[in-house]
Amino acid sequence: MAERREWTVTGMDCASCTTKVTRALERMPGVSDVKVALMAERLTLDLEDAAQGALVEDAVRKLGFGIAPKGQDALRKKAFILPDAEIAAPAGLQPAACSDGCHGTHAKHDDSARDKHDGHGHTHDDPPDRGKPWYRTAKGKLVILTGALLGAAWGIELLTSAELGYWAFLLACLIGVAPVAKRAFEALRMGQPFTIEALMTIAAIGALAIGAAEEAALVVFLFAVGEVLEGVATGKAREGIKALANLVPKTALLEIEGQTRTVPADTLEIGQTVLVRPGDRIPADGEIAEGTSGIDESPVTGESVPLAKTVGDAVFAGSINTEAALRIRVTREPSDNTIARIVRLVEDAEEARAPTERFIDRFSRWYMPAVVAIAALVIVVPPLAMGGDWGTWTYRGLALLLIGCPCALVISVPASIASALSAGARRGLLMKGGAVIEAAAKTTHVAFDKTGTLTQGKPVVTDIVPATGIAEADLLAVAAAVETGSSHPLAQAILARAGALALPSRDGRAIPGKGVEAMVDGAKAWVASPRHASDLGGIDGIALRRAVQLEDEGKTVVAVFRERQPLGLIALRDEPRTDAADAVRQLKAMGVEAVMLTGDNARTAAAIAGGLGLGHRAEMMPEDKLTAIRDMGASVMMVGDGINDAPALKQAGIGVAMGSGTDVALETADAAILRDRVTDAPAMIRLARATMGNIRQNVTLALGLKAVFLVTSVLGITGLWIAILADTGATVLVTLNALRLLRFDPTKEA
Fold it and tell me: Identical fold at 251-334 and 460-573?
């Protein structure tokens, strides 16, 4: 039986890196279901024989990446030629290491690792280049080296002769291209001949063969510069997710028998109590055991306004205690706190690839061989068929090779998706991958559940109508006395409104379907439905008509009375969220139709929906909601609480769960809204549409530049150095354009 194995793979920087690893491992016997997660730097696969794990690691290292079993340092072999120049991310970012459609070498250097591993590899979990200026990173040093060699060659040519200059350029080119050629050879051995390393190596050697040593050396230098630029650009999305994980403090004040001591936060256990002082971050998910304070949950939900929380309220790791000391009982393992689950969700979202991304991946599989074939024809056909100069057409064919690399095209979609996922996560909008983003962008209908989605989910007292001669306080005091001890939501609302007014009571009991009765001040009192009160003489005709009016407004009405003595009416309603009407307005402005699906009675549904300005369907069972969603078509977003609406959430084109970091909200639906804001539904659609627009811009930019320079290269207008500059430039422009989404605020209307 196959065993599922997991490794950490470092040095990957774009979708092409993951493709390179995936294709190489899929060709190995006994290996199946290979999945490579770029953001998580994770490789998982099924092995028929556990002993094959060493072969997997060796294959990945030969491709230029670091790898180690999960939880260990990721290692790679020494870089070829330049042992201290394994390429690391500039300025503390992740390395730009790609081939088969993206530039880069693939390792980070750790001085201490050389002693530990006898020079055969280096640790990668905490790259030493993190935070360094680009010129002090290994990749920056490689740029400086190749630039210095190129400058020296120009100096030699200027001060001596063109012949000596030629040999200097030749040496500079060979030194710079050697590591690239090695990676190209390893990829070729694993059945991947069409990589950027291979095209780069062919172009450089071909240029040397026709005597263009100066241009070959310049191309190698520009290639190295491109790696630095791409590393800076493409590392930001991953750093955004890692920064989120770092919001959880590393230590906690554990309280045991009245004494506190500092312990690592990741050692906390469920049931332990921690002390959180004002200004400190909460070290674990838990609930308040003692104290009341304002909690800033912006790291988790994006909500910037602190929330007042007290004993029994849930709090999330990474949130900030703003006012007073709290004692918090841990309710989740540190590795399973809300922020950790959000990070895993965003990282795992890579596997849900957008249809557009899958299409471009298929396109690139035949695009590269086609470019190589066209370049070969450009080199061969004009000299043979038209008597053209071999040197001229070889030069143009080599330029065509470099122009044809699909780096920018391949990275155009995943770069935008990664940026969108990061931007959404920071604002409490979680989407499980590119497929969800693409589906959300196509949304034409949004179906809302009512209770807990459009409404607060907690009824509140809206109207108090005392009988003639009865004070409002007396009415509330009796009602609260009767409801004392009840856990029913209506009872809790009445008790909350009455506060300390409640009178002593005893012998309370529920009357199923009718109300509650109890002994209050030595006499029976009731809180019951108007119909039951009418049967017992607890309501008169005027009050009964008033009760009907209140019910027509979507409110639940109870009558409070003593035996043959009406005391009055109390009306309650689960009020709409304050932003619900604005959310419906925003959706309409975006051309999206909104409808409310609820199991409540028709009068309540009509009142709520009418106040919000959207259509409604009432008295629906879960299967009715499922049918309604199916009838709306594929482009429908369902927003619900993630529990009762599970069938409808699954049926919808995209199911969105409301809930501040709950398991259901994070795991059951396609997406989740953590801030419990209804306006985040249009915000999610806005972010998805902006992402798809960004992808279209990237694809147009990548293909447009390719088309222009393919033509100019064939016509001889542009040469090798322009070709590599155009390729690198297109990749950097596409990546920078995608990173604009990191600053996009979907909560703002266009």
Answer: no
Q: Are 587 and 446 in contact (CB under 8 A)?
A: yes
Give the separation between CA 19 and CA 418, rounded to whole angstroms: 16
d(CA 455, CA 356): 37
What are the CA-CA distances from residue 685 to residues 412, 571, 710 (Å)? 20, 37, 37
Tell me, yes or no, if the pTM score tops 0.85. Answer: no
Classify domain 429-456+576-674 at the CATH class level.
Answer: alpha beta
Kindly write down the DSSP assignment for every residue of 710-721, as one continuous string: HHHHHTTSS-HH
Pick the CATH number of 251-334 from 3.20.20.105, 3.30.70.1250, 2.70.150.10, 3.20.20.120: 2.70.150.10
pLDDT tier for residue 361 given thresholds of 50, 70 and 90: low
pLDDT in tens, 459-488: 889 999 999 889 999 999 999 999 987 777
Query: Cβ(282)–Cβ(661) under 8 Å?
Result: no
Backbone conformation region of residue 580, classed left if phi is above 0, alpha if psi is from -120 to 50, else beta = alpha
Q: Catalytic site residues?
A: 449
Asked whether 567 and 474 are in contact (CB, 8 A), the reply is yes
Burial of 131 (C-beta count, 10 Å sphere; 0-12/13-18/19+): exposed
Q: Where are the domains of the chain?
A: 251-334, 429-456+576-674, 460-573
Question: If 0-12 CB within 10 Å is exposed, 13-18 middle and 19+ buried, where does residue 227 land?
Answer: buried
Highest mean pLDDT among 374-388, 574-588, 611-625: 574-588
The answer to whether residues 239 and 93 touch, using CB atoms and an 8 Å cutoff, is yes
Spatial neighbors of 234 by CB under 8 A, at least 6 apart, are 13, 14, 94, 96, 411, 415, 735
The CATH number of domain 460-573, selected from 1.10.510.10, 3.40.1110.10, 3.40.50.2000, 3.40.1440.60: 3.40.1110.10
Spell out the residues 6+ positions from residue 374 whose beta carbon is closer than 8 angstroms to its own. Answer: 400, 404
**Secondary structure of residue 388 in the 3-state scheme:** coil
Distance of CA 535 to the CA centre of its chain: 58
Q: Rounded to whole angstroms, how far apart are CA atoms 273 and 268?
A: 9
Measure the CA–CA gap between 544 and 555, rounded to whole angstroms.
14
